[in-house]
Amino acid sequence: MKISEVMTSNVTVASPDQSIQDAAAMMLKLDAGALPVGDDDRLIGMITDRDIALRAVARGKGVETRIRDVMTKDVRYCFDDQDTDEIAETMGSEQVRRLPVINRDKRLVGIVSLGDLALQRAADDAAGDALSGISRPAGSHNQA
């Protein structure tokens, strides 16, 4: 199965010029711990709740701090036409919970999470079924 079949395509993208307070508010609304950061439709980074906590709050930076100043710039990503098994293996070896998804023109088209992959695999095996229960969203979201 291809990533495009399991990814979340309705992705909220943060701007690098927004504040970390804006990012935190978006994460709260989405019940998500990370947001892709884009310039037009190009992926330029990711901002996570951990980035905000460790790179901003822990260092005494204020809520007006720009996302670009604390975001992760070296972003791992996958392509929308890659196989889900390949991406699951990559996520495990890279120890990441979510990956932005781009097309071959390098345009952001979605995001895939461990939960997305677990739900896809749930029918395939008991471990996937258990993981899907743990990873299932608690409320309504637009992205994982």
Please characterize this protein's 3D structure.
The protein has 144 residues and is of the alpha+beta class. It has a single domain, classed as CBS-domain, CATH 3.10.580.10. Helices cover 33% and strands 18% of the residues. It is built from five helices and five strands; from the N terminus they run H-E-E-H-E-H-E-E-H-H. The strands form two sheets. A three-stranded mixed β-sheet has the order 3-4-5. Strands 1-2 form a two-stranded antiparallel sheet. Helix 4 (114-121) crosses helix 5. The mean pLDDT is 87.
Number of strands: 5
Q: Looking across the biggest beta sheet, what order are the strands in?
A: 3-4-5
Radius of gyration: 15 Å
Mean pLDDT: 87
**Tally of discrete structural domains:** 1
Helix and strand string, N-terminal first?
HEEHEHEEHH
Oligomer: single chain
Low-pLDDT segments, ≥5 res: none
Please state the structural category: alpha+beta
Count of separate DSSP helical elements = 5
Q: How much of the sequence is in beta strands?
A: 15-25%
Measured distance between first and last alpha carbons = 19 Å
Helix content: 25-40%
